[in-house]
Here is the input.
Amino acid sequence: MTNRFLGILLLLIPPAAMAQGVSEDTPLRPVTQTLAITNARVVVAPGEILENTTVVIREGRIEEVGNRVSAPPDARVIEGDTLWVYPGFIDAYSFAAVPDSVKEEESEEESEGDRGNPTRKQAGILPDRDVRTLLDPTRDAVDSLRNIGFTLAHAVPRDGLFPGTSALVLLRETNRFEFPDYLILGDPVALIAQMDGNNSGYPGTPMGILSVMRERFENARRATRTSDTWRENGATYRPGFDPSLEALQPVLWDEMPFLFRANNALNGFRGLRLAREEDLSNVILAGIPDAAPLLSRLQENDVPVIAPLALPDTVEADSAALAIPLPDDIAPGPEGRAFVTFRRTLSHRTVDTEKTDLIIQQRAAVRRHEANPALLAASSIPFAFGSFNLKVDEIRKNLFRMVEAGLSPDDALRALTTAPAQLLDIDDIAGTIERGRLGNLVLTTGDYFSEDTDVRMVIVEGKVHEIEAEDKKEEGDENDE
Amino acid sequence: MTNETHYSLMKSILSLLALVLTCMPVLAQTPADLPPADERGSLLIRGATVHTITNGTLENTDIRVVNGKIDEIGTELTAPRGSRTIDATGMHLMPGIIDAHSHIALSSVNEWTNPVVAEVQMRDALNPTQIAIYRALAGGVTTIHTLHGSANPIGGESETIKLRYGTLDPEELLFDGAPRTIKFALGENPTRVHGRGAGVRPATRMGVEQVFREAFQEARNYRQRQEESRDPLPYDPRMETLAGILSGDVLVHCHSYRADEILMLLRVLEDFGVDRITFQHVNEGFKVAPELAAFGAGASVFSDWWSYKFEVYYSTAYNAAILTRNGVRTSINSDSGELIRHLNHEAAKAQRYGELTDEEALALITINPAWQLGIDERVGSIEIGKDADLALFSGHPLSIYSTAEVTIVDGVVRFDRQRDGDDMRLVVDPEEEIPDTAPHRHDDSCMHGVTDLYEYLY
Here is the structure.
């Protein structure tokens, strides 16, 4: 009797896989979906600051902004009296949510193949790869990026000359029972191209890579015409399965931007030339640390730029070298090339002088990189900042260096907010603090571009992330021992 | 010493002293004030000894340049309005030197991953920021043929460029209208890189021959199928370029050493109806000079560089002279960022070894390489209507004592020894390591980029 009773009981217990698994890690159901930040200094857009303003977010979207706005009764209230509020920053070129390249365990077998006739994957020809299928928004890098104010990232696939298409991802933690995939925002953004060759075969050089890109585009152009006709008229050529050609067509038809990543101006010239030859009109150039040589080309062709947040290390120099002022003509300008050219090394006795001069030269080169965003701003070239491979703790430091070198804080903020929003075609839902935009905000203790300011909270689609004040090194702690 | 050389020597010492004593930083050229690459200059060169190459040597002659072209050659000429006059009294003017085999101004030299890479173009790898370009100008060189490396039997398309140093835009170096050229290679380099390196054909010289035959045959088939097919066929840039060789639109330049492989390639070209080729290095060319002359082939040689591998053992410094005397249009090249700085001396060696006349020797670095590159209508001699690419030397260019003083490209002075700046780099790497001693040597050679296959070389 008891056995049967127990049996029935067992049947009534649902299998573990289907249980609503609430564990200690499951986020709590939020008390409210409404948020109000009251009486704060709100930077609604670069250069537009509203005082004593309240921002109301409902269900992840900004509902109201104004100084006569009161917090709705169901809102969680964040008192913003001592706080500044910025639009959530957008990282225009990010790997934070993109897993690292798969290390080549299979490389043994793969490199045994004909290095001159590699597979599509080996050659890096993967324009059909959708980064959304690879994304992992739970990576730690996402948290680090968010902690300094980034709320949205333009996630880009890593490897290959055509690594794939990019996508937008919200940099927040998931809500209760939410899958990380839900953080992916919308459709693929851009088709990426970069000078990343095949490590174990063709194409391994810049000329190899560019000729492959050209050939793929040419055949993508032709593929539309041959693919449907071969069955009807007994043609002898049957097109095969080649998803890379179809993946390139949106770019040829100007339905998707062509984003060329270049690590220096020379590769920038190469990328622009390719775009011109293939008649691509929607082009973005990314990654160039010193864009001065390209300015006129960028202006002629209306090419916006994604500028790296990375900067070369400041040059270590002894006091003698530092005392010598940098030449005047390193001020940003298309012709401004800084070179100290008078340097007579007559003998071994003057070698030290030459070394000092070389150090000055190098400092001037570092200064040019620091002044690059200021130059882009002065030349009216739309640019957004991207983190690329930079470690997150360098980002704010580098922004300060760029501001020091001539970039106005408003232009810097623009490159973090409205410029990437426009570039990525999301200016209707991001980049400013206005009704209808996503509830992406950064709450700081002061002007973001002041070194004393800390980021207190980052709100992404209405979800609040509080940032613990960093444990600063205090003399108190050391004295306690 | 003769009075002339004494005078030149004194002049050199005096100018050196003047330079050191006056130390005028104000006049020194900086990269910022280099003239733009699209400028076509006007100037007057007065009173030089002019080596025209095609019309003899003219004493005490003026050359007038207008908008990048040689406008007039004569005496008592006037400078074009608003332009500079260079007093060339006692100096020698010759056409800008043309180096038919170089690897400078490139980011990368060898797409060594496949034995046939005809689709690749060195135009895509041009690097206008290399200081080697400026140093070449300092040797009187104005035009170079910068090539794909010799790792493959069929390499990529090479590029003929003018040394318009100062621009950061690679396209501004292009020699507009220069014929397309492609790099072939025979012998040990391709057989090592592919045969030994990857176990693929070619591993032997007979394999190299078959690579050519097969490639040409496939190109023929490709063209034929295109013509016969009703529907557009896939575009294959490799086949397109190979077909271009067969139709004469792309000139072959072939790295070669041994007489047997030279004859092999001549036979292959005959079989496929290609009637123009310039052999590069061609150290054993002296053995097959009559055959080369009968074909109408060109030869671009070293003056005296050999024995660095087995296939280059059987060589002679008389190579250039023997080829010239047997009717082969010969040039002397550098294949080196160092030799390019004194090609005038390299040409002079053919006088010591072979007794070429002044004009024959100078032709080795001017009109002959121009012909080999298909640009002899534009450069290579001093004639009215040609491009004003000129090199002004302190003395006779074939003299060991002479240095290039002024180098002019398209009528624009791009090197002036009196105004040579100390640091003419166009791009300074902000993260460079500043060493305490000598800088590293940059290797510009045919095997650039493949020396990590070291076990297969030499």
Summary: Chain A touches chain B through 64 residues (CB under 8 Å).
